[in-house]
Specification:
By secondary structure, this protein is α/β, with parallel strands linked by helices. It contains 9 helices and 10 strands. About 45% of the residues are buried. The mean pLDDT is about 95. Bound molecules: adenosine-5'-triphosphate and magnesium ion (MG). Magnesium ion binds near residues 49, 50 and 174.
Length: about 260
């Protein structure tokens, strides 16, 4: 468990909503995440978990509500400016189920490229930072390899290093281990646990109930575009209050 600091929220969503056509996918979501907090989001398929993450960094444009990350607040009812969006995206790193590394570039180049393009780092500075991060995720020896020579778990750790290299204030993870064999998933979970313990603010959509219970500070259950229940991880996982949460956790345990 990480210590949750007593600061104001780093992330604040107020009445965030999103439709696809007539389908209401996010229904007036209010959420606060403080600096250093690790929030796990769990819930049934189609409940809006990925959409919520994608709205936080504007990969998906919400219909309404306010999104605050650090000093940047975007009002989703009007068009966001380019500088608002770049301010938001600078602060928010994201890791997906699919790692999307460039196959024609070495592992090192994959981690360095965005640092040069987005942050304007020199190649030398970028490579130095990349090597630090590859070491941190246990893959310094893969720097000169191409991604195809790396396992799925290794590729996901490279994707995490690539995201961390842009010095985000918060990291969003959307089922980072669900495409991996269990054993390879463990390598990735170990990296995420280390990141959590180092004080990174994280929002993690996951099917890993062990991670939700043991690594995250807070667990939130979503169903039908709403937050059903949210609280300290041990409490929500071991003693859920809502019938919908109990049903979901039973279904997961019986799987
Ligand atoms: N681009 C899109 N166009 C239309 N409908 C979409 C789109 N993306 C998602 N949806 C719908 O929005 C709802 C929420 O999807 P979302 O991907 O956020 O769910 P999820 O909770 O992440 O599910 P899963 O656990 O399966 O990943 C689903 O009903 C989905 O079919
Ligand atoms: Mg999803």
């Amino acid at each position: 468990m990480t210590a949750v600091q007593n600061a104001g929220p780093l992330i604040r969503l107020a009445a965030l909503s999103k439709h696809y056509g007539t389908h209401l996918v996010l229904d007036q979501i209010d959420l606060e995440v403080v600096k250093g907090e690790v929030l796990a989001i769990i819930g049934p398929s189609g409940s809006g978990k990925s959409t919520l993450l994608r709205c936080i960094n504007y990969l998906e444009v919400p219909d309404g509500g306010l999104i605050t990350v650090g000093p940047t607040t975007i009002d989703a009812t009007r068009a966001a400016s380019r500088s608002e969006l770049s301010g938001l995206r600078r602060r928010v790193g994201m890791v997906f189920q699919s790692f999307n590394l460039f196959p024609h570039m070495t592992v090192l180049r994959n981690v360095s490229l965005a640092q040069e393009r987005v942050l304007g780092r020199t190649r030398r500075d970028a490579d130095e930072r990349s090597m630090q991060l590859l070491k941190r995720v246990g893959l310094a020896d893969k720097a000169g390899q191409y991604p195809v020579r790396c396992s799925g778990g290794q590729q996901q750790r490279i994707a995490i290093a690539r995201s961390l290299a842009l010095d985000p204030e918060v990291m969003l993870f959307d089922e980072p281990t669900s495409a991996l064999d269990p054993e390879l998933g463990l390598e990735v979970l170990a990296v995420m646990r280390e990141l959590a313990e180092s004080g990174m603010t994280m929002i993690v959509v996951t099917h890993e109930m062990g991670f939700a219970e043991n690594v995250s500070d807070t667990v939130m259950i979503m169903a039908d575009g709403k937050i059903v229940e949210k609280g300290p991880s041990a409490q929500v996982m071991r003693n859920p209050q809502q019938e919908r949460t109990k049903r979901f956790l039973r279904a997961v345990h019986d799987r």
